[in-house]
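Q: Given only this backbone (409 positions), what sequence would you predict?
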């Protein structure tokens, strides 16, 4: 079957929810980039909380935020779309407001602020995916989801860059960044709500909606917990290895992170379009193979030691990023393809639960394995990812085959 790889920006914007929604995504991500990477720093420097206490409060906020996902899934299955997206942004406005109001050395208000931020961060991906799925279908939906991720990563990168430059202003600058973040979340919520999108098929009562069972997708969800580790490799695993084991300059860690962000922005849509030649299930399995190969590559190059080790790690990180891009372009798309329309919200909520759990435990797992040497870290990640790839190969419904990729209406 012929597959077109033409990518038309206007069509992608319309398929992703329209211009106002695209602006909302960009503004929301820009605000997130201003604060989220520096939330720990805010707690330590502005609120003068001990670093372990701050980190524990942030982790607790993320984990507690996962508890909201079943309710989000049921809300989406009643037909809500833009309202849920806007709500996920508004709850973060509350989190930022509480953060600004927290007195120094008071951990509980900070923990509650982290909870609100965690709820918003956990609820947004499922709500966004449901909204895009309502606007466009088939492979156009996959490309629209990829375009949204590229846009979001670009805005996150810009926000983080602005914040990095602004941090020279000390604690006062961090407070300003938090205030601007709250305003950005509020503006994004208003824009998202103004889209006023509701799922037309979800016209039954809540009881009728609950009668449609959500697919369990046990193998896929279990595999996703391991797959999602790849998102924390550039931020946690590689800096840890580069600085503590290879004794490289922190500049290498920054270079790897920047390269990861740039590659996602540039390649997310083209790679997703290219992989549409295969079924989503096959694409996700390919992602697992690529990620496994990258982990084995990291294991091999760390043996080079000082000198060539850092450049080699940076080179292999490109392979890891390609695996991440294929994973991000196929995982959510596969869930939206397998879920019945009336159970889409609950299926996406379960998927985000598995993603959130993986992201929550991965820093602890990575930092626990790293001191035992490269074989313990990269060998374990490679083995777990390869096992997850085999689980993915058993998931699916037989209808997930390539249909061609058409980015036009």
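A: Predicted residues:
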């Amino acid at each position: 079957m012929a597959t077109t790889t033409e990518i038309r920006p206007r069509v992608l914007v319309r398929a992703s929810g329209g211009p106002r929604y695209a602006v909302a995504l960009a503004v929301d991500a820009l605000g997130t980039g201003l604060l989220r990477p520096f939330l720990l720093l805010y707690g330590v420097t502005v609120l003068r909380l001990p670093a372990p206490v701050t980190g524990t409060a942030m982790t607790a906020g993320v984990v507690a935020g996962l508890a909201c996902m079943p309710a989000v899934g049921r809300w989406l299955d009643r037909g809500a779309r833009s309202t849920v997206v806007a709500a996920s942004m508004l709850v973060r406005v509350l989190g930022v407001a509480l953060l600004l109001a927290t007195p120094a050395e008071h951990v509980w208000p900070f923990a509650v602020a982290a909870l609100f931020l965690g709820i918003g961060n956990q609820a947004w991906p499922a709500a966004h995916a449901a909204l895009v799925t309502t606007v466009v279908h088939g492979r156009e939906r996959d490309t629209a989801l990829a375009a949204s991720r590229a846009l979001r990563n670009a805005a996150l990168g810009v926000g983080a860059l602005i914040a990095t430059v602004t941090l020279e202003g000390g604690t006062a600058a961090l407070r300003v960044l938090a205030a601007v973040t709250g305003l950005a979340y509020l503006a994004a919520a208003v824009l998202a709500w103004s889209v006023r999108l509701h799922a037309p098929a979800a016209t039954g009562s809540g009881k009728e909606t609950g009668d449609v069972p959500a697919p369990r997708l046990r193998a896929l969800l279990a595999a996703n917990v391991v797959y999602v580790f790849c998102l924390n490799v550039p931020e946690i695993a590689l800096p840890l290895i580069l600085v503590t084991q290879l004794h490289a300059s922190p500049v290498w860690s920054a270079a790897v992170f920047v390269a990861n962000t740039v590659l996602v922005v540039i390649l997310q849509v083209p790679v997703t379009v290219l992989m549409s030649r295969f079924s989503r299930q096959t694409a996700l399995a390919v992602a697992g193979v690529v990620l496994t190969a990258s982990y084995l590559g990291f294991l091999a190059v760390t043996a080079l030691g000082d000198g060539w080790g850092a450049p080699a790690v940076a080179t292999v990180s490109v392979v890891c990023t390609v695996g991440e891009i294929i994973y991000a372009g196929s995982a959510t798309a596969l869930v939206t393809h397998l879920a019945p329309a009336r159970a889409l919200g609950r299926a996406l909520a379960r998927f985000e639960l598995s993603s959130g759990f993986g992201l929550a435990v991965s820093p602890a797992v990575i930092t626990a394995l790293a001191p035992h040497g490269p074989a313990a870290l990269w060998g374990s990640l490679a083995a777990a990812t390869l096992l997850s790839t085999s689980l993915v190969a058993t998931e699916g419904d037989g209808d997930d085959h390539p249909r061609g990729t058409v980015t036009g209406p």
